[in-house]
Amino acid sequence: MHAITIPEPGGPEALVWDEVPDPVPGEGEVLVEVVASAVNRADILQRQGFYQPPPGASPYPGLECSGRIAELGPGVSGWAVGDEVCALLAGGGYAEKVAVPAGQLLPVPDGVDLKQAAALPEVVCTVWSNVFMVAHLHPGETLLAHGGSSGIGTMAIQLAKAVGARVAVTAGTKEKLDRCAELGADLLINYREQDFVAEIKQATDGAGADVILDNMGAKYLDRNIQALAVNGRLAIIGLQGGAKGELNIAALLNKRAAISATSLRARPLSEKAAIVAAVREHVWPLLAAGHVRPIVDRELPMAEAAEAHRVVEASGHIGKVLLVPPVAG
Fold first, then answer.
1. Alpha helix segments (H runs only) across the chain
2. What would the mean pLDDT of 86-103 be, rounded to a whole number?
3. Percent of the chain scoring above 70 in pLDDT
4. Which residues lie below 8 Å from residue 314, measured CB to CB, with a gap of 6+?
5. What's the pLDDT band for 137 if we cut at 50, 70, 90?
6. What sign results for the dihedral spanned by CA atoms 68, 289, 293, 160?
7. Do strands 105-107 and 84-88 pair parallel, antiparallel, or not at all (unpaired)?
8. What is the 3-state secondary structure (H, E, C) of 257-308?
9. Spatial CB neighbours of 170, under 8 Å, sequence gap ≥ 6
10. 275 contact partners, CB below 8 Å, separation of at least 6
11. Looking at residue 327, what is its pLDDT?
12. Which residues in 153-180 are b (16+ Cβ under 10 Å) and which e?
């Protein structure tokens, strides 16, 4: 098969479409013929040499895909060759085939195109696990999602609205904020021109956000605490603004607030399977009913993964960027 390899870390040009050995499904795994994969910022960090795959995972980038089951490994039940699926991966999505633990498979939701289903697993599992399973967003509460036009952000808006929450977002352009509004966002904050702390306070009569989904890390840490409501929950899922920040613990105590920080990739298989099962139970019906949908900015040939990385690094997209192998479809 062919896959995107990274012979040496570097810029987008470090991504090389090359012939590699076919993966073999192990115990409890299935082999998926990839129809599409999607780009995540973790892939960019891996390309740069900063985020290596967990032990035993595929060395190729790609944390989600959609496709058809080509082979069942030993001990797999409940799935059949030919099933159309999407999958949460620890790596290997930028390839024509990938071996996937069966617990990380999801059926393609009713009403969702097979290719576009590749835009779902990573963002849905990230949002559901952080916003709902950890931060326990409730109906009537306010969610602030930074990077509202990203893949994570566009899914967070839809899921929060589907459960009856109020949604505030930050983004850097009017076009991006307009798209967030189309998805249901109630409060639109241009972070280049507005102070999100002041805006969220004003919109909530001084209360603040009950849950904040943060992709920035250190840069926003202090201001996120300021923007939290009493009993608020800050869920950190990214470090685009740095890894080390100073925390005012007194402010956190005064608000009886909580901070969580999680990633999906390095979690044990059992935890990933539990998240995937929760997503199938709670989110898949919303997709089938049309209340939630994948947001895809563009599709590019997988061999042009370098261009896809340039688009994502420049934040020139809304939703997800998909990569499609040559014979997919």
1. 41-48, 121-127, 151-162, 174-183, 196-203, 221-227, 249-254, 269-282, 284-288, 305-313
2. 98
3. 99
4. none
5. very high
6. negative
7. antiparallel
8. CEEEECCCCCCCHHHHHHHHHHHHHHCHHHHHCCCCCCCEEEEEEHHHHHHH
9. 144, 145, 146, 147, 148, 189, 190, 191, 196
10. 88, 125, 128, 129, 133, 264, 267
11. 74
12. bbbbbbbbbbbebbbbbbbeeeebbebb
Distance in angstroms (rounded) separating the CA atoms of residues 278 and 285:
11
Q: Give the list of residues 6+ apart from residue 13 with CB closer than 8 angstroms, or none.
A: 306
Parallel/antiparallel/unpaired status of strands 320-324 and 29-38: antiparallel
What is the identity of the amino acid at 16? V
41-48 and 305-313 helices, crossing angle to 10°: 110
273-277, Cβ contacts within 8 angstroms, sequence gap of 24 or more = 273/101, 273/103, 273/104, 275/88, 275/125, 275/128, 275/129, 275/133, 276/88, 276/103, 276/104, 276/105, 276/106, 276/121, 276/125, 277/103
Sheet holding 142-145, edge to edge: 187-190, 166-171, 142-145, 209-214, 228-236, 258-261
Cα gap 157→127, rounded to integer Å: 10
pLDDT tens figures, 160-187:
999 999 999 999 999 999 999 999 999 9
Structure tokens at 149: 């036009």
The number of angstroms, rounded, from the C-alpha of 118 to the middle of its chain's C-alpha atoms is 11
Give the tokens for residue 104. 């990380």
Q: How far, in Å, CA of 233 to CA of 252, rounded?
A: 10
- Report which residue type is found at 243: A
